Automatic annotation (TrEMBL):
Topology within the bilayer: Single-pass type I membrane protein
Signal peptide extent: 1-17
Gene name tied to this protein: Tmem27
GO biological process, one term: positive regulation of amino acid transport
InterPro entries, per the entry: Collectrin, Collectrin_dom
Protein name: TMM27 protein
Transmembrane segments: 146-170
Species annotation: Rhagologus leucostigma
């Protein structure tokens, strides 16, 4: 009985070794840069971190497909290096001797990439799935609804237009009053008065003015 159990385990181990190896079908390589990401707060990559990675991949697979029965034991790691890099595959839970198609694994990882990154305090640059393209950051939603932003912009334009009309009206009114005042002053300077039916210029009170009628009478008399 014990011999049969050991034989079974060895067969499973050999099968798993064939499934998980560099460039194997449906296998993915992972490269982790903990020191780069966390500096002095970097943690050591050990068996506990490997268990957490397997758990997160199993979680991603189960969340990707509600009918999935993927367990932690279905996630296999191999060729783990000190730098930290390794390969992994996900085996079919029903057969356990074949791997889940790479397209499904990729879709599950992409769907849950932020959750996986958060579990290890890393990001897409420091936790790299080399055959899986980086996920795009979710679009940032504005704190205010779009319609409210549009309404605010339109309201500002209306207010600015009203202020412009008021200011321009005041300026035109001031300009009109100034032109009217200048015109009145000019009319006062050139104003003529009528005396005895004869138009006469306004007298210059400071310099005096010689009446042309009397000047003509004086010229008729010959000086002695």
């Amino acid at each position: 009985m014990l011999r049969a159990l050991l034989l079974t385990l060895s067969v499973v181990a050999i099968a798993h070794a064939e499934l998980c190896k560099p460039d194997a079908q449906n296998a993915f390589k992972v490269r982790i840069s903990i020191k780069t990401a966390l500096g002095d707060n970097a943690y050591a990559w050990d068996a506990n971190e490997e268990y957490l990675f397997k758990a997160m991949v199993a979680f991603a697979m189960r969340r990707y497909s509600s009918k999935s029965t993927t367990q932690i034991s279905n996630v296999l790691l191999c060729n783990v290096t000190d730098r930290v890099s390794f390969w992994f595959v996900v085996t079919d839970s029903s057969k356990n001797v074949t791997t889940v198609p790479g397209s499904e694994v990729e879709a599950a990882i992409r769907m849950n990439r932020n959750r996986i990154n958060s579990a290890f305090l890393l990001n897409d640059k420091t936790l790299q799935f080399l055959k899986i393209t980086s996920t795009l950051s979710p679009p940032v939603e504005p704190s205010a609804p779009v319609w409210l932003i549009v309404f605010g912009v339109v309201l500002c334009l209306v207010v600015a237009g009203i202020v412009f009309l008021i200011v321009s009206g005041i300026q035109k009114h001031k300009k009109k009053n100034k032109e009217s005042t200048e015109r009145e002053n000019l009319e006062e300077k050139v104003e003529v008065t009528l005396e005895n039916g004869i138009p006469c210029e306004v007298l210059d009170l400071k310099a005096g003015h010689i009446n042309g009628v009397f000047a003509a009478d004086d010229e008729r008399f010959t000086p002695l």
